[in-house]
Amino acid sequence: MKDLIDIHMHTIASGHAYSTVREMFTAARARGIRLAGIADHAPYMPGAPQKMYFCNFKVVRQADYGLEAIMGAELNILDYSGSIDLSEKILCKLDYAIASLHELCISPGTKEQNTAALTGAMRNPRVTVIGHPDNGRYPVNFETLVQTAKETHTLLEINNSSYANNTGRPGSRENARLMLQYCRQYAVPVLMSSDAHVDSDAGNHSEAYTILQETDFPESLVINTNLEKFKTYLYKSE
Predict the structure, then answer these.
(1) Does the N-terminal or the C-terminal CB of the chain have fewer CB atoms within 10 Å?
(2) Alpha carbon of 110 to those of 56, 131, 228: distances in Å?
């Protein structure tokens, strides 16, 4: 399987990651990634950069890194309606946005509440990807999640770090298998991501790929294989 894309990578700006923009892009390129994105945590996450950080991405030039470089944010979902922590004015300056549930920003609710939080975020036209939707700390209705992803043209993430032995997201492997069943049923694409917080993990999708193999998930529904198909998910409001 061709693996050309990794847009969930963090830099030292996130406060709990350990490499620079250049180091992350260089490492991703060395792994064969052709389109890479930096998605540092949005301001509600402790230690994350302030809003101004997300307003000057024009200084990041693709020619400096030898791959197609895009700049976004990992937004924090703040309530069970799907509110996020960057304004429309700032979101318009980004190439893309990932929206995720994090315990430091929102307490796990009921299955209905967690599902409403994620589907509400999906309905924001600036949200491109739902990050680690299979986190067992946040039970969800996966059929509803997948159906809403199809309706809103939003990607669901297969997050490599969620499946590592030291993950803080219990049940992710089992939940991913269930989510992938519905993705196959409704023909909804997924996006493998590294969620790298250090350059040695940039572009690393080994655990995610294993789950796709174990479930015999169709390659045609893995968006990492096709740059042009992936780009149809960018700027979905335009």
Answers:
(1) C
(2) 38, 19, 37
Most distant pair of Cα atoms in the chain: their distance: 46
* DSSP-assigned states of every residue in 33-50: -SEEEEEEEPTTSTTPPP
Report whether 205 contacts 18 (CB < 8 A): no
Phi and psi dihedrals of 66, rounded to 5?
75, 15
17 contacts 11 by C-beta, under 8 angstroms:
yes
Tell me: the pLDDT tens digits for 163-177?
Answer: 988 888 999 999 999
> Residue with structure tokens 């990041």?
60
| Tens digit of each residue's pLDDT (9 = 90 or more) over 95-121 | 999 999 999 999 999 999 999 999 999
Distance CA 133, CA 117 (A): 11
Distance between CA atoms of 137 and 115, rounded to whole angstroms? 12
Sign of CA dihedral 76, 79, 80, 82: negative
Q: Read off the pLDDT of each residue in 171-200 and give the average, rounded to a whole number.
A: 98
The backbone torsions φ and ψ at residue 104, rounded to the nearest 5 degrees and listed phi first, read -75, -10
Residues 154/193, Cβ–Cβ less than 8 Å: no
**Cβ atoms 196, 10 nearer than 8 A:** yes
Residue 43, Cβ neighbours under 10 Å: how many?
A: 18
Contact 61, 76 (CB under 8 A): no
Could you give the CA distance from residue 168 to residue 137 in angstroms, rounded to a whole number?
9
pTM for this structure? 0.97
